[in-house]
Amino acid sequence: MSSPRSVASLSHGTGKRTLQQQRSEAVQEEKKKQPWAVGKNAALFAFFVVVLPTVMILAGVSHTPAAAATRLGWTMLGTFTARGAVQKRAEENNRCDTSVGRWVREPSVPAYTAATCPTLPDSKNCRKYGKDPGHLYWRWRPDGGCDLPRPSPARFLAAVRGKRLAFIGDSLARNQMESLLCLLSQAEAPTKVSADDDGVREWRFPAHGFTLMAITTRFLARAEEVLGGDGRPTASFDVHLDAPDPVWASRHLRELDYAVFSTGNWFFRVNYFSEGGRRVACSGCSGDADAGELADFGVAHAVRRVVRAALEATARCGSCKRGLVAFVRTYTPSHFEHGSWFDGGYCNRTRPLEEDEAPSWDQSIGWDVRRAQIEEVTSARKTTTTTRFEVLDVTKAMMLRADGHPGRHYDKRSAGGGANDCLHWCIPGPIDMWNDVLLHKIAETASPPATNLR
Ligand SMILES: *[C@@H]1O[C@H](CO)[C@@H](O)[C@H](O)[C@H]1NC(C)=O
């Protein structure tokens, strides 16, 4: 699996403008999250500029020029909205936006080590295979003065006591689970519940009644390998955009308190898309004989459709727990340079990219994928009051971490000879930050403690 469009190989752009764009985007998102704020201002406007002057005129104060009343209205409206802005700024400070920020050097010890994490898989154990440990000593500092503290394992476990959390997605979802297992192992040793038969892994922390799962689904939707003329599977998939993968949707969703959806990297190959059982589009297929008249959706649009279907299925899930919180973890790119997974690409940088070393990050397909994912969460929020939808927006942070992959320093037994892994993340490593954000959000959305569990 590979996505050769590495951020480092993109053409140049202007970093300053793009940051501003991103900020205004964040402001837009904030507005969407708080429609009441806009509605309240509109109501105040209507009252002071339209209703109040009208009432004054009708009440016989007709000698008062309407203009004066209107002026009064404007003044009072100004006072109210200024107060609203102050209050809103305070709220924004409380709701720390962890999606924008920068990596700062932090000469402290990593969150954990291989010695404290017996479950750490060899393929991500970068130190063991000789990787320079430089990638461990960076911390993501969000802009705007808010802090993203590293959660203590005990605090995390206390917050999820009695709950069940699943990472639902491809091998990067599993990667996040592996990071969380290592983090939590310091407080309690997990026990493995299920073998990896149907792509579902399950661990329990018995003293806390907490269950952690990784459910493998490459596309979130049902997908089959496309067979070639010789009857053998090709590299392409037929993805059923409107059909959530039953491995999570039918079997496990109803058990969950927290679902963390992610997808993206498998869309960067030639794929075909079906709706209602009929092929309707493709991605990357132009010039392909099989494609015929099919429209090329492109990666971001295809991801949008499967995320929408997943969130709709979650919102509609009648048998799901009340208070289910569904997260979408946004797309993270690979960092192959001078090639891809299959033809000698590598990633041997030893420090995070500076913003101007990843100049057009916000014009990349990966950024479009992120935007589509966030927009779908925003729309899903409007459809339900029982499920909470949240975003783990890690795209920008991870775009800069070209140094955080196993690269050539991973277990050669599984490498099939020579390939570099510039897609998954070392643990310990920058992926630990995804779980810092996760706990931050879980604490933020904390519902009253569940009483019916355990
Ligand atoms: C990365 O690998 C390339 C090709 O082998 C080499 O030229 C370069 O010096 C390496 N960079 C680092 C930082 O090791």
What do you see in this structure?
- This protein has 454 residues and is of the alpha/beta class.
- The chain folds into 2 domains: 7-12 and 102-444, SGNH hydrolase (Rossmann fold); 36-92.
- It has 10 helices and 14 strands.
- The strands form 3 sheets. Strands 4-5-6-3-9-13-14 form a 7-stranded mixed sheet, with helices on both faces.
- Strand 4 and strand 5 form a beta hairpin.
- It is globular.
- The model is unreliable at 1-84, 89-93 and 447-454 (pLDDT under 50).
How would you concisely characterize the structure shown here?
The chain is of the alpha/beta class and 454 residues long. It is 33% helix and 17% strand. The protein contains ten helices and 14 strands.
| Helicity, as a percent range | 25-40%
CATH topology of the largest domain: Rossmann fold
Counting helices, strands and paired strands, the structural category is alpha/beta
Q: Would you list the SSEs in sequence order as H and E?
A: HHHEEHEHEEEEEHEEEEHEHEHH
Number of domains: 2
The number of strands is 14
The termini sit apart by 38 Å
- What's the oligomerization state? single chain
Transmembrane segments: 42-61
Domain Trichome birefringence-like C-terminal: 148-440
Biased composition (Polar residues): 1-25
Region (Disordered): 1-33
